[in-house]
Design a protein that fits this description.
three-stranded antiparallel beta sheet, 174 residues, two-stranded antiparallel ribbon, 5 strands
Length: 174
């Protein structure tokens, strides 16, 4: 089949494996629904050759950039993902937060915008560690992950809802 032949031909039929990534991008094309990450300098602990701290630029998928990219390039996904919760649910959420007197809301700049109770979509930030190396044995190494999702969605599939911000081996954190 033609797709198999094209994939087999990557990197001049394997003679130049360094060109495989370039050839694959040319074959598949660039995705338009994925936003490029911002690189942020983070202090990371490096164990070898001797323990020390170094600044490393790590990729972060910042939520405002992801939302803006979805809005600009894939409006259908944006509508399904961000506005699954009906505006009346959003408004009742903010009215409940106000009635409780939540101090995080008291001087928030979004409250100065007209119609903010119907348009401000609350987001949920989530952080978790996942064992990835030597699982179930002594010396298990974990990967720390940080993700976000709209708070009032009810899609039910975590894979669809959660959007990655960054991940990093826990042993690298200072």
């Amino acid at each position: 089949p033609e797709p198999i032949r094209c994939l087999a031909a990557l990197g001049s039929w394997g003679r130049t494996p360094g060109n495989c990534a370039r050839d694959l991008k040319n074959y598949l094309g660039q995705p338009s629904s994925i936003v490029a990450p911002e690189f942020v300098a983070v202090q990371v602990k490096v164990a070898k050759p001797r323990p020390r701290l170094v600044n490393v630029k790590l990729p972060f998928f910042l939520p405002p950039l992801q939302i803006a990219h979805m809005f600009a390039y894939d409006r259908t996904v944006f509508e399904q993902f961000m506005f699954q919760a009906q505006p009346d649910r959003i408004e009742s959420f903010w009215l409940e937060i106000e009635s409780r007197g939540d101090p995080r809301l008291s001087d928030h700049p979004m409250r100065r915008r007209v119609g903010w109770r119907r348009n401000a979509i609350p987001l949920l930030l989530h952080g978790d560690d996942v064992p990835v190396v030597r699982v179930g044995r002594p010396g298990t190494a974990s990967m720390g992950n940080c993700s976000w999702q709209p708070l009032l969605t009810h899609h039910g599939r975590t894979l669809y809802l959660k959007r990655l911000i960054f991940s990093m081996f826990r042993g690298c954190c200072t």
